[in-house]
Amino acid sequence: MDSDEKDLENIDVMSTVPKVGGTIGKLFDILDSIFTAFATLALLAIVFTVLVQIISRLFFPSPPIWTAEGSKYLFIYMVAMASGVVIRRSRNVNVELFQVYLSPRGLAVYQAVICTLIGSFAAYILPHAWAFAQVGTFQSSPTLYISMFYIFLSTVFLFSLVLLYSAIGVFEAIAAMFRKPPTETESTSWN
């Protein structure tokens, strides 16, 4: 982690809740890497699609019609794939009104409550997202000619990842609540 990332971590109060270590922590980190890679691939595909559109507008009489629609769908999937990692790394937009006054264990309790609420919402929405995705089986994309089911399925991925990462957040918060605070000589993320 470079100095800019460390500075960013110190600004964010919620990042002081330590992540789970050991084998489980490594599995969570691998999961983060997988979904970050998917989101990055979607971003690179967006860049490629936009470049195709720009180059074709400059050098050809008419650009391919699929580029605008393709970039929109790639953006939707990029957001869906990154949603869980954003929750785990506390990179979502939030307002910190009272969190700075909480102890490390208080922050862990707060994280558990917030993740439980977010996860409950995602669990409630998930069946509706699946029903929405099934509506797409009867429709096709106007320019890409693919079933809209695959596009609407992004909502299922989004809420599934939000639910999964909310559960991970609750797990990490509970682990942090019962973790023994480090002594003065140990390095820590309990700031």
UniProtKB/TrEMBL annotation:
Domain of life of the source: Bacteria
GO terms, biological process: C4-dicarboxylate transport
Transmembrane segments: 34-55, 70-87, 107-126, 146-171
Annotated ranges, domain Tripartite ATP-independent periplasmic transporters DctQ component: 46-174
GO cellular component terms given for this protein: plasma membrane
Family, as annotated: Belongs to the TRAP transporter small permease family.
Quaternary structure (record): The complex comprises the extracytoplasmic solute receptor protein and the two transmembrane proteins.
Its job: Part of the tripartite ATP-independent periplasmic (TRAP) transport system.
Stated name of the protein: TRAP transporter small permease protein
Biological source species: Modicisalibacter muralis
Lineage: Bacteria, Pseudomonadati, Pseudomonadota, Gammaproteobacteria, Oceanospirillales
